[in-house]
C-alpha cells in the first residue's frame, strides 16, 4: 500500500513538473509568435495587437476547460468524454491558430518551422489540458479504479 501511495505521489509530482516546464514555455512562445505575426499586418491596423493579447488567454481557457470537462467525465464515469464535440473543436481551434502563428511569425516558413510550432503547441496544450487532473484529489482513486479494471480483464 505504501509503495502504491509513493508511486501515485511520484506520478502527481511528475505531472506538475511537466506542467511547470511546458506551460510557461508555451505561453511565452505564444506571446512572441503572436507579436511577430501581428507586426506583419499594416501599421494602422488595430488587429496587429490581437494575436499576442488574445491567443495566450484563449489557449489557457480552452485547454483547461476541455481538460476540466474531460476529467469530470472520467471521475464521474458518466458519459464518454469523447462524445463532447466541443472539447475536440476547442483543442483543434487552439492548435490551428497556435501553429499558424508560429509559421506566420517567420520571414521564411519551412517544414521545420511548422514541425517546431506543432511540437511546442502540442506539449503546451498537453500541459494545460492535464492541469485539472493533476490538481484533483480524485487522481489516486481514478488510477486505482482503472488499474483494477485492466488487471481484472483477461489478456
Spatial separation of the terminal alpha carbons:
25 Å
Ranges where pLDDT stays below 50 over 5 or more residues in a row are none
Mean pLDDT: 86
Quantity of strands, as a count? 0
Shape: elongated
- Oligomeric form of this entry? single chain
Strand content: under 5%
**What structural class should be given to the helix and strand makeup?**
mainly alpha
Please summarize the sheet with the most strands.
Answer: none
Number of helical stretches of at least 4 residues: 6
Describe this structure in words.
It is built from 6 helices and no strands. The protein has helices at residues 2-38, 50-76, 85-104, 111-129, 131-135, 139-152. It is elongated. The two termini are 25 Å apart. Helices cover 79% and strands 0% of the residues. The chain has 155 residues and is mainly alpha-helical. Helix 1 crosses helix 4, helix 2 packs across helix 4 and helix 3 (85-104) runs antiparallel to helix 4 (111-129). The longest helix is centred in the N-terminal third of the chain and has 37 residues, at 2-38. The model has no long low-confidence stretch (mean pLDDT 86).
